[in-house]
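Record passed on here:
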Amino acid sequence: MREPLQGTRPLCILLVEDDADSLAALARLLSVSGHRALAAASAEEALRLAAAERCDLVVSDVGLPDRSGIELMRELSTLYGIPGIAVTGYAEAAHLDECARAGFTRHIKKPVEFPELLLAVNELGGTRDGDGGDGSG
């Protein structure tokens, strides 16, 4: 595994995406970038992984088959205080506000451009432990 780009520490990232090809590609790219990606294809799988592993960050699709990524983020934020990045095709102001209220601190529009995602991951990488990020909620 390589060192993470831009001087951030290696992170354990809970990656939630119901499209199998996208999930595999993003997990592989995060891994190659020096991070550990725990891949989940559903909200329930993500909750099981989060209970078993200490994750630093959540990157979640908002449209999941078993519940919304917004509901998932609310639960993960409440239970574990994990910051999150929403991945969605929606960009209306009301939707972005709902994502923020749920605990997502960043929003990336689909289709995901990996450099944009990696930049957001690296910026948020230390916010759980207070050793990085911008401190905004």
User: Anything to note?
Assistant: The first strand starts at residue 12 and ends at 16. The first helix runs from residue 20 to 32.
